[in-house]
Design a protein that fits this description.
Distance between the termini: 20 Å
CATH class of the largest domain: Alpha Beta
Number of helices: 14
CATH architecture of the largest domain: 2-Layer Sandwich
Helix content: 40-55%
Radius of gyration: 21 Å
Strand content: 15-25%
Largest sheet: 6 strands, mixed
Order of helices and strands: EEEHEEHHEHHHEEEHHHHHEHHEEH
Oligomer: single chain
Mean pLDDT: 96
CATH superfamily of the largest domain: ATPase, nucleotide binding domain
Number of domains: 2
Low-confidence stretches: none
Bound molecules: adenosine monophosphate
Strand order of the largest sheet: 3-2-1-4-6-5
Length: 377
């Protein structure tokens, strides 16, 4: 059972081929600086064929596509047909950079393998369980009805994957059957999710991935009136402000760097703005842990994932230090251990269990694709 997972971006094509009988990655590749998606698909097939895995896309059992925005419409992985494509097209205004590129991947794959079942897996689906009081903004209600303005949340495939791994671990080792979890996906993009017994009940990203935690180059939460002030004072236009908040802010805006490894190095060498950027990054996460502990009415576990969450012992320690008032007691020694899939980070006295878990969005997409093609439609 060979399933190909495609992540078709505006300028890159990421792919992984899985053998789902043994959940093994057969091949993974990245084609960068893609100008023509058709050419990128041809290059990908050449690579897969050179390794002897498949000779053409038609040899596959299924293709799973990462799609960024599924709006309110897509609550689960969905088999691709004309109706699916039209619905993803209708969501383009909500994700003008991502959905068109995701669609190109779907259409190209369909062209080369019309008989291979394809499944769209959405970054937003896991958060469609949010209650209305968590997803409606304090704006005129008609903006929700007319313009679909609401919190959608992203990184859903990752939050879902790691929260399932955490729940399995907590059930097996601590007899915790219905854990209240906070999942922290900390990479270049960063988001937190509050998960109650397997269901996302709140998340920090909003209608777009700009809201919430401080990120590599995105501001996260700010006072929206800053935009009006800047427009009035500097004459900045919409594109400039969009660029400012999405590309020139966050860690990069504060200390000139968006790569956390470099920022930590610079902070160790005495760079005060790098130290400040780290401080803001971690403080913002602490605040979300507090808020989501209240939303969940208590907390059983915290998950660190994403490039920073999985790999930076330093950031994990900064986030969890001085949190014993919330029952979060961190073990700095365990935190230094290397690990394969999951590392426990709490002290034996800690009420809240803390874990670093390696996310695997591609495997999750392959698994969901496999389940979707086997399920009766
Ligand atoms: P992602 O977007 O999930 O690939 O994560 C990228 C971010 O993870 C970048 O800011 C990297 O600097 C950061 N990162 C990866 N490894 C480490 C590490 N060992 N320590 C600190 N940050 C790391």
């Amino acid at each position: 059972m060979k399933i190909l997972v495609l992540n078709s971006g505006s300028s890159s094509l990421k792919f992984q081929l899985f053998d789902m009988t043994c959940h093994k990655v057969l091949y993974s590749g990245l084609i960068e600086q893609v100008r023509d998606h058709q050419q990128a698909i041809i290059t990908m097939v050449k690579q897969l064929s050179a390794q002897g895995h498949i000779h053409q896309l038609a040899d596959l059992d299924a293709i799973g596509h990462r799609v960024v925005h599924g709006g309110e419409y897509f609550k689960q992985p969905t088999l691709v047909n004309q109706q699916t494509i039209e619905a993803i097209e209708q969501l383009i205004p909500l994700a003008p950079l991502h959905n068109p590129a995701n669609l190109l991947g779907i259409k190209m794959a369909q062209q080369y393998a019309p008989d291979v079942p394809q499944v769209a897996v959405f970054d937003t689906s896991f958060h469609t369980s949010l209650p209305d009081y968590a997803y409606i903004y304090g704006l005129p209600y008609e903006l929700y009805n007319k313009h679909h303005i609401r919190r959608y949340g992203f990184h859903g495939t990752s939050h879902y994957y790691v929260s399932r791994q955490a729940a399995r671990h907590l059930r097996a080792h601590y007899n915790l059957e219905q854990p209240r979890l906070i999942s922290l996906h900390l990479g270049n993009g960063a988001s937190a999710a509050a998960i109650d017994n397997g269901q996302s009940i709140d998340t920090s990203m909003g209608m777009t991935p700009l809201e919430g935690l401080l990120m590599g180059s995105r501001s996260g939460d700010i006072d929206p009136a800053i935009l009006f002030y800047l427009a009035r004072e500097t004459g900045a236009g919409i594109q400039e402000l969009d660029d400012l908040l999405n590309k020139q802010s966050g860690l990069k805006g504060i200390c000139g760097q968006n790569d956390m490894r470099t920022i930590i190095e610079q902070a160790k060498q005495g760079n005060t703005l790098s130290s400040l950027a780290i401080h803001i990054f971690c403080y913002r996460i602490k605040k979300y842990i507090g808020a989501y502990s209240a939303a969940l009415n208590g907390l059983d576990g915290i998950i660190f994932t994403g490039g920073i969450g999985e790999n930076s012992a330093f950031i994990r320690e900064q986030v969890c230090s001085a949190m014993d008032g919330l029952g979060i007691e961190f073990d700095t020694e365990k935190n230094q251990n290397s690990y394969d899939k999951l590392l426990e980070l709490h002290s034996s006295a800690s009420k809240v269990k803390i874990m670093a878990i390696r996310t695997n969005e591609e495997l999750e997409i392959a698994t969901q694709t496999y389940m979707a093609i086997r399920a009766p439609q």
